[in-house]
Design a protein that fits this description.
alpha+beta, 8 helices, 252 residues
Length: 252
């Protein structure tokens, strides 16, 4: 500053000013550290530690209610085509019966319907083995469903996908409050890989099934980096009756 002002100052004076400025800086720093708390200021290291603690506490609270759930994704094969040439009342009746059939079958194995979208249904189970048993029952029970509840000219055929993973329900542990979850997405991807009448089971779900992969089947699949095993129903498909001349079906 003295040089910038072009003042005629001896070099010794410049060194003196520099030393004085450094001394004032050191004293100010020491005073600031000593009276930091009095001034309402936090030590940077302590402040960082407090912020990390708050972050951990928030993460712990957000993970409260974390649970492992098995999701089952169900989709009807060719549903759009089936509706195109069918009587609207027959379509309404059949699809209402279809949703009732899925819900009752799932409930038998301790599961619940998570969400529905048209002919697609997503269900949730606490145990992988229960989800797998329900998936097999859904596929195997179509024999009776098509015989007595389907008023369309074409048999209802389903694809099913199963995946297990951790979720954190935002509403007091209610699985139905989950709207976005990778576990649900993966079960839907697996469902698309399943053949009509089959069930695609992820390796994560297979770990909770008695017998593991061997107890499910021998066909392996992979989608979106997730590997799984296919289960196929051995039941013969029931030929469709002429439902137009059949008595009106009743609910089971």
């Amino acid at each position: 500053m003295l040089l910038a002002l072009r003042m005629n100052v001896e070099p010794a004076m410049i060194l003196l000013f520099m030393a004085l400025g450094g001394g004032i800086g050191i004293v100010s720093h020491l005073l600031l550290n000593r009276f930091r708390s009095t001034l309402g200021m936090k030590d940077p290291a302590k402040e960082r530690q407090d912020m990390l603690k708050q972050l951990v506490d928030l993460q712990t609270k957000l993970k409260t209610g974390e649970q492992q759930v098995t999701f089952m994704s169900i989709d009807m094969v060719g549903s759009t085509r089936m509706k195109e040439s069918a009587d609207p009342l027959s379509v309404e009746f059949t699809f209402n019966e279809y949703h009732i059939y899925i819900e009752k079958t799932v409930q038998r194995f301790g599961g619940r319907v998570h969400s529905t979208a048209g002919d697609g249904v997503t269900c949730a189970f606490e145990e992988p083995s229960a989800g797998f048993q329900a998936a097999k029952a859904v596929q195997s029970g179509l024999f009776e469903f098509n015989a007595f509840r389907n008023r369309l000219s074409e048999a209802v055929t389903l694809r099913v996908g199963l995946h297990t993973g951790l979720i954190v329900p935002p509403d007091s542990g209610d699985v139905r409050s989950i709207n976005f979850s990778q576990v649900i997405d993966i079960s839907a991807h697996l469902q698309k890989c399943a053949p009509p009448g089959g069930v695609a089971v992820s390796d994560a779900t297979a770990e909770g099934v008695p017998g593991g992969q061997v107890g499910i089947g021998s066909e392996r699949i992979e989608t979106s980096g997730i590997t799984g095993t296919l289960w196929r129903s051995k039941q013969l498909e029931l030929p469709m009756q002429n439902l137009e001349t059949s008595p009106a079906p009743g609910r089971a």
